[in-house]
């Protein structure tokens, strides 16, 4: 775009006019998909000792202790192709005192996986990334990705090549394991079964489906049932708590005017500027696995005319975009409706409500981060 376009009354800092996400259609090569299977920028520096447990939620402190021991137990483990449990299982038994807290004289080969069960904003991704960092193995022997990224890897490489690529790893971390699509769930279940047979340790977090939350306890039950063949390889770890993203922080600023958002976009180097309804339409033409690449090089996302999301398919795509923006710490400045009014009451009480509440939580945090972009 030409750099001659400017907002009247304000000299832009940016060399060029803001980009439009709607003009981008990224293509992600397979080798990049593999190379990027590491914790995203927001979680690049997190560690167990940077996790701040809520003193009123002892399960959070316990989770750190258990996962630390699990990571240490992976130090002597490696993929062997034999499906052995090795020291990872031993580390888990030491941390939990045997199966279900009971010492056993002759414990069976135990799970090589842990499932973090809890609500949104309790720090599951922080803990999952900390486990990845704490596992004593080279980065090339550890993989971290979302469920969407993992399914896209299978699509790009093919099933057998994905198995070969990941079988040499000590640990595979899957954030936001999805129970939405039975086909994808079966596909990944088959993949994980092969990896477990190769000796790869697993860790995952998962969303839950409404009506099955049961104060969060059914999240683990759903997860284990959906991956029937893998149930013996996972041990659920409950993490209670409130949404840390807003703990002790001021409320997010209300939406700005279209003019304020536009001026901020022109004044911010690397910002994007899009009409919200148009962006929702564009997301339908870009595979969700490419939403991260869609934001490459973007320093801030500026949106005008935020409106209620019209349908569930659109809403689920927006959830993925919100996750990728949050992972990359990209602030979001918007006009129109506040983010807590994006989703209808029916959506917030339906089958994907936990996803929508997570998106509201993350977008609200990013809106708070964007406050400094607006000239006071």
TrEMBL record:
Keywords: ATP-binding, Cell cycle, Cell division, Nucleotide-binding
GO MF: ATP binding; ATP hydrolysis activity
Pfam families: AFG1_ATPase (PF03969)
GO (cellular component) term, any one: cytoplasm
Region annotated Disordered, chain positions: 1-22
InterPro entries from the UniProt entry: ATPase_AFG1-like, P-loop_NTPase
Swiss-Prot/TrEMBL GO biological process terms: cell division
Protein name: Cell division protein ZapE
